[in-house]
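QA checklist item 7 of 12: single-chain prediction sanity check.
[x] sequence parsed
[x] length recorded as 107
[x] structure emitted
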Amino acid sequence: MWVTDEEMALIAQHLQITIEQFKRTYIRQKDNRFALIEKKSQNHDCIFLKENKCQIYPVRPSQCRTFPWWKENLNSRESWALAAESCEGISEEAPLVPFEEIQRTLG
């Protein structure tokens, strides 16, 4: 997941560590962008995903906050179904999110 300088600062504060420690421990840099490191597991989960729960949920990056409403997931029913395979929030049992809330989230 890509993160901005502001998001890194918020997450570091949430974890009660310095921004320098946060970057050393949880960030990788690619070109001029920063991303959260992934677990070295087969599916490369985010380092903050534990037992299918986000450990930094209140301060999660924008890329995480806007999932699953990414353009590539909304292109077709098949794309949505594929996203549903890895997202427990996309199911008949999941609570319905009002359209206004989705619009607010996508800003």
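[x] summary fact logged: Residues 66-107 form one domain.
[ ] second reviewer sign-off
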